[in-house]
Amino acid sequence: MAGIYIHIPFCRQACHYCDFHFSTNLKTQNEMVEAIAQEIIDRKEYLGESIQTIYFGGGTPSILSSAQLMLLLDAVRENHTIDSDAEITLEANPEDLIHSKTVELFELGINRLSIGIQTFNESKLMWMNRVHNSNESINAFENARTAGFQNISLDLIYAIPDHSNERWEADLKAITDLDPEHISLYGLTIEDKTVFHKWEQQKKLVQVPEDEAAGQYLFAIDFLKSRGYVQYEVSNFGKEGFHSRHNNAYWSGVPYLGVGPGAHSFDGQSRRFNVRNNSKYLKAIHDSNSYHKTELLSRIQRINEQILTQLRTAKGLNLSVPQNAMGVNLEELHADFILEISERQLAEIKNGFLSLKPKGFLVADEIALRLFF
Ligand code: SF4
């Protein structure tokens, strides 16, 4: 069992909050697609197992033409063994999903779309420097459905400054009215080197207070539950049978090959990080030079990663995993802390798993840190 992540490092314009790796210079798009296809070929031995999930992330993968996507999919299909029921996801922005494009994407064999809606509020979309408007979001979703997509995920952002709780509820209502199979929620965070960071320093932007952001998150959990969405991870909610297989594989420590500038790979023992720079990546592929760094993970690092990722899932941390790997009973070692978080209604132990409750998800990373070896 393994997955492939393909990073498409282009966007039409930079959203003011985003610190992902992308360029708005689209001139090298063709060259980049060829280089990524070359990396897929060069690294065909990396996994040595059949592929169950393929994920086009970015950046904005839907910026690519169908011919460019086909070239990449052909490279994957010709050089790796793909399961017949593989989940093939493409991240898309609403402005790209016109009817003909959604039909082409479906015909290419892409069977899951993850659409960046973020909010239905026009002024906030503009404020965040998103390209699309709210009508385009609705059209994109409807086009995808008409084209045949039966597995669609939509992204929303909460904790947007000056976006009242009522507006947040309106966003949740609008998104669930569309009836997608999956919804991801992200709290707006201010990242270094973004326009929002600059605005914050200039006192033009004030972040939503933590308790208000937490309130919106907890409200969303209840709201989505009432609409039939099961929370299976901190940020992810799906109808039964529609949890992201690609993300689940990441959280379970399954190996994956990541191609493209800025992509990471994991072979079960080490992580590999591709250079986060389009020109350096292109030149290195062209000259057959190295374009990555590798970090060999120690046993302790691998166990700590599992503690962190498993705690973020609704199923929780399988307490026997660290016990078997380290010969230490985590439940005994941290008995006082586990009792404290249980009494504070942040977590519970059930059938050998330590699982976080909604309030615990808000501090999942802090709890994980306390349990690290
Ligand atoms: S479209 Fe996505 S990747 Fe591109 S800048 Fe906006 S949030 Fe970032």
**Considering DSSP H and I runs of 4 or more, what fraction of the residues is helical?**
40-55%
Name of the CATH architecture of the largest domain: Alpha-Beta Barrel
User: What is Rg?
Assistant: 21 Å
Estimate the global geometry from the Cα principal axes.
globular
* CATH classification, class level of the largest domain: Alpha Beta
Instruction: Tell me about the largest β-sheet.
Output: 9 strands, mixed
Number of extended strands: 15
- What is the quaternary state of this protein? single chain
Low-confidence stretches: none
Strand order of the largest sheet: 7-8-6-5-4-3-2-1-9
CATH level-4 homologous superfamily of the largest domain: Aldolase class I
How many helical elements?
A: 16
Bound molecules: iron/sulfur cluster
Could you tell me the mean pLDDT? 96
Which class of secondary structure composition applies to the elements? alpha/beta
Determine the strand fraction and express it as a percent band. Answer: 15-25%
Any chance you could write out the topology, listing elements then pairs?
Elements: E1 2-8, H1 29-42, E2 51-58, H2 66-79, E3 82-92, H3 99-107, E4 112-118, H4 122-127, H5 134-147, E5 152-158, H6 165-178, E6 182-187, H7 195-201, H8 210-226, E7 230-233, E8 236-238, H9 245-251, E9 256-259, E10 264-266, E11 270-274, H10 278-287, E12 292-296, H11 299-311, E13 317-318, H12 320-326, H13 330-333, H14 335-343, E14 347-350, E15 353-356, H15 358-361, H16 364-371
Parallel strand pairs: 1-2, 1-9, 2-3, 3-4, 4-5, 5-6
Antiparallel strand pairs: 6-8, 7-8, 10-11, 11-12, 13-15, 14-15
Helix pairs in contact: 1-2, 1-10, 3-5, 6-8, 11-12, 11-16
The structure holds iron/sulfur cluster.
Iron/sulfur cluster binds at residues 11, 14-15, 18, 20, 22, 58-60, 93, 116.
